[in-house]
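The instructor's notes for this session suggest beginning with a concrete chain rather than abstract definitions. Hand out the sequence below and ask the class to guess, before any prediction is shown, which regions might be ordered.
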Amino acid sequence: MIKIILWFFILPSLSCFSQRITEQMADAARQAFEENNYEEALSLYEQLISEKPKNVHYHYYAGLCLMNTNGDPEKAIYHFNCAHSGYTTAEIKTHLAKAYLLNYQPDMTISLLSHNPEGQQQSALLSNARILKEKTRSFIPQKCEYVTETSMDFLYDTLKSICKRLNKGPESITLMRLNKDNENDFVLYRQHSANPFIYFSSAGVQQDIMKIKKITDGRTTKADGLGHTINTPENEIFPYFDPYTTTLYFSSNGHSSCGGYDLFRSVLNPETGIWTTPENLGFPINTPYDDLIYLPVNPTYAILVSARNCSKTNVRIYILTATKNSRAYYASTNDELAQHAGFIIPGDIDDPGAGKDQKNTAYNTSAKLPSAAYKKNIQQGLFYQAIADSMLRLAEGKNKILFSLASSTQITAERKEIYRLKKYAGEIQLKADQYFIEASNNETTILSDANNPSGMKTTAKPSINKFNISSTPSANELLQPTPVILPDGIIYRIQLGVYSTAMPHSYFKGIQPLSGEKFLQPPVIKYYAGVFTSYFDCSAALEEVRALGFTDAFIVSYLNGKEIPAERAKKLEQ
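After discussion, reveal the predicted structure:
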């Protein structure tokens, strides 16, 4: 009888506690969305949806977050369809149409909008979908030799480094900054005796392509626009003129495109000075995402800079190679189109027999899908992780305004609240970690299952221990900061120091590998050594680093690319 009475009081308390957590998470999600922190908001909305799967508002905002971060458009389509009953038809139609376009389903976009497009945005999406459908009807596949992802803040430095490696000599492609305060205000040109012009994109609300002529004494003529054949009422950016073929390559959101910025080319008649009508470079060079730069470096390689397959603040730089076979390819599904857009090529595109009947090459084939226990533990871990992160953000927000409060009484009260929030976050974090550890155990069981079907391969995450101290003298060349994409899971690195300017390789006494990352506030460069999956291995390397004189070096821990406390990383590793 006593147990029944106790449960009578406990159950409502648990329900109230759960409701309070959900409300706090919804507030945090809404705040993150309003502050344009879409990745954080998406994580919270996904946790809320796991608790309340029929809430149309959670689905709607989850879909918007995915669209604003270049997230998975297929997931966005799902969320917008779930939200359909709670929002106006026109509103949902626009978002759905764009999501279908980004998912390489132009037919669905056309079906949604063709009867009665409402407003300029829907009309533009309909036009984009029709162009994408035409461009993907048949196309020449492209092979990718190399790809790297970089922040737009580092685009100039990364692109300059790649161009330097690919094309050497007096007539190589050169990058030159126009504005030291704008990271992406730069020109691309090739030194050539027959090409006295430099082409660039004007600053301002409407960006047009301009040209200046170099004069022998180092001066230039007044900038001159290229006219209405090239420039539109919208934007034309990142021009590059190839003097060997008198061809101008540029990006535009004003000419007929598959969506966003597309890449075009126009050929100059040197005798008449007339440009041909810009030609869309077609799929897979162009996609529904922003495609920004195309550089034919030499007969073998071309560089493509595109925002496909990465977050909104990043771009990917692809080095494409010429294919021996120029036969058109016919993709039968949107999945095939997505593969080609990412240059993940089915079969061998240099093989004349390759085509839509060719079997796709399979990679990383797993023996079994994750178990229900694994999924449940991951879901619960993410749920509690989101709560812990939310509590810490609230504490950090209060801490920032602590000393602006009027009285010592208020400061004391806020300090107590900050302490309470951090303590609560720590307790919730422990719960999250317990679920993640349990999920890791589930995953190990899946990978080692004795009932693995014959011929199927399981892929275990390899141990990483990238570290070495070379006896060969390092170069005096400056080690420029470049963004580093860390592997998923628990990763450790050694932070060597923080510097106001770039340091030469020789300064680090043979330590390899090295990486530098640039921070804007404050403007410093942090240098790191090594990449490890084991704290023990990283600690051993740290002793070697300190013995070389870097006595202030320390270990930095990461979970899926985000920095976390070392103690938590060690616990998760175990």
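Then share the key points. The mean pLDDT is 78. The chain is about 40% helix and 20% strand.
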